[in-house]
Structures are given as C-alpha cells and as structure tokens.
Amino acid sequence: MPGIHHVGLIVPPASDFDETVAWWAEVLQAKVVVREALTTADPTAIGLPDVGPQDILLEGAQLQPNDGGTRVELHRFVKPGDSLFPQRRTHDVGLSHIAVSVDYEDLRAEGDRLEDLGVRWLAPPQQITTGVLNGVQWRYGEVPREYGDARLELTTPSPIGA
C-alpha cells in the first residue's frame, strides 16, 4: 500500500459548500483538484442501509496540499440532512483531528492566520519536553461548526524515526 490517499470530512448540510471548500483550501493552503456536483450514491455502499436511494443527495470536493501530501475530501449531504448534530469532542471515537505540519518558526504566525479564519485555539502552543517526541511543538484548535466541526492541529516536525 503506497500511502493514504485522502481523509474525509462531512460538513453540515446547511453549510454553503462553495464557501466551505474555499475556507478549507485557505486553511490548508491547498488547491481544489476534484469537485463533484450534486449526485446520488448507493446507501448501502456508504453505510446508510436504512435510507432509500431516493433519499441520498451529496456533493464533494478534494483538496490537494501544495506539498503533494494526503488530500482532504469534503462532502456535504443535502439528503439525508440534519443540522441538529451534536458537537464533536476530542475524545469521541472516530477521526480525531487533522494535523498540519508547520516549521518551528512559523507556528505562531500560522496560528494567528488560522485564528483570523475562525479557528478557536484551545490553548497556547505547547511543547513536548520528554520522550521520543521531545522538542515537538503543537497546538489544538476547533474548526467552526459551519466548516465541519473538526479539530485541527498545528505540529512541528517530529524527530527522525518518530
């Protein structure tokens, strides 16, 4: 297996999808490489066996980081759509967060840039001071609900081998 192709994120059904795609492209400094128009999908194939085929309507996009790394795929389900979903918590089972690598000297500036875009940081930058990740700096934040209610992490490079 050559590597991870993409990580998927579902955004709220009530979101403006074009705005959401543009927001993530700005956050990740990525380009849109795939844009799916409204389409249907086999409910069983996507894990919704109790929903009829006529009740599935979604659109999507894939964003490619400038470094050519793993893509982020966004989907917005128009049907079934329920904007009353619970707030995700860091310890919920499933995809935990999206981590973006930044250089040490860029951690604060990138944090400020993302804060201007609406990311709410949970704490100031942290630094690991022991163990195999000694020296890594990181910062966890919350993406606005309208853009996917995800956690975003800024992290500096890990030591070789970690």
Walk me through this protein's architecture.
The structure is a single chain. The chain has 162 residues and is α+β, with helices and mostly antiparallel strands. It has 2 domains: 6-79, no CATH class; 98-155, Signal recognition particle alu RNA binding heterodimer, srp9/1 (2-Layer Sandwich), CATH 3.30.720. 14% of the residues lie in helices and 33% in strands. It is built from 2 helices and 9 strands, in the order βαββββαββββ. The protein has helices at residues 17-28, 107-116, and strands at 6-11, 30-39, 57-65, 71-79, 98-101, 120-121, 126-127, 137-142, 151-155. Strands 5, 6, 7, 8 and 9 form a 5-stranded mixed β-sheet that branches. Strand 3 and strand 4 form a beta hairpin. The radius of gyration is 17 Å and the shape is elongated. The two termini are 20 Å apart. 16% of the residues are buried.
Cα-atom Rg, whole angstroms?
Answer: 17 Å
How far apart the termini lie comes to: 20 Å
In N-to-C order, the SSE pattern is EHEEEEHEEEE
* Average of pLDDT: 85
| Tally of individual domains | 2
**Outline type:** elongated
Bin the helical content.
10-25%
Task: Identify low-pLDDT runs.
Answer: none
Our count of helices gives 2
- Please state the structural category: alpha+beta
Task: Specify the biggest β-sheet.
Answer: 5 strands, mixed
**How much of the sequence is in beta strands?**
25-35%
- Say how many strands there are: 9
